[in-house]
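Appendix C reproduces, verbatim, an entry submitted by the partner laboratory led by Prof. M.T., so that reviewers can inspect both the input and the predicted structure.
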Amino acid sequence: MHLLLKIVFKIFPFLRPKIKSISIDDIKELSKTKITDKEIFSIDRGYDIYGNFHEDFNQDSYTATIPELYVYTLKNGMVENGLEEIYTSKKQVIKEYTTQETNPRIGEFFPTNPVKKLKGSLAYFNLSGLENFYGHFWCEYISQIYLLWKSGIKADYYVFTQELPFQKEFVSLICKTFNIQQNKLITLPKGTILKPDTLIFTSLINSKKKILLKNRTFFNKVYMPSFVKDVYRLLAESIPANNEYGEKIYISREKMDVRNSTNEKEVQDIVTKKGFVVIHPEDFSVAEQIAIFKNTKYLIATSGSGVSSFFVTQKQNAKILLFFPYYCPDTHYKILSSICNISYDYIRCNSSTVVIEGEPREDNLTVDLEGLKFFLDSIN
């Protein structure tokens, strides 16, 4: 029957149904369990290591409201594996359920992909590829899994994104931390239409705002829920600390293709003389990174995904210093520092080389060595 429909729709594409939207509050087959109440998130104005405020660097103070967060169960719900959008049994897409400004599936043709029916309940987690970025997996993605764990709702099956090696490692660690049996995980090809008896999904941790810098539009994170520090604590508690690297870590990006420092040798010479150990996070597994950073009190790094693991630190009065290219006004780690009670400093460095045309966030940079020394003196 499925093959016949594909043939018919290929010959007569106008017969394919277009996707209509429905508000989440209008779905009779859907029930929800509230996990968190509304939360007010506030962040202070940010100053660089010298105490200067950069008006164009998106470091001003603000207050935002984090909405209530839920776990949803939808009878006969559907999802296309590899995408975040959720459908009712009538192939209506949930209008509000998207990380985009508007749901991109509205008005599109419903896919004629292979269908996998599942008896029982399926918990599904996907962010349409955003979770392929290590830093986002650490934040938005595992926060969704935490919401389900907090609800106490158990699923018969689970679908996690496991395309990349770090995701497979992470999923294994998540299953251990949140008591999910590995034999309940299923892996299916991208594009497969999943049709369980009951589809389980959570609120999206979705916050971003447009900013304009150097005639380019960027998106910056606005908030993260305060429970993210509980997620990191649980991950930290699941793995013994590795004290071999000490409390002072410098993350080098010398093996990376973007955001490299032109004076990397000088930077490493300065920090090692002050007792810092140089590491390359890509040389360690996820569990090994957590073990190292659990014991880290001071971190120096150029802003990048490798910094994400630091927020599992169990040290009091921890501090972080980040280097940014001149046109890289990112707030991601400032927000996490605020939530995790970590002292946050940054240096806005001069960009030296355009690595990707039109992507100034990825420029190579020259670290301000005087600012670096100033920070080192402050912690010693």
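Helices lie at 2-11, 134-151, 165-177, 228-237, 264-273, 286-293, 332-339, 369-379. Additional entries are available on request from the coordinating office.
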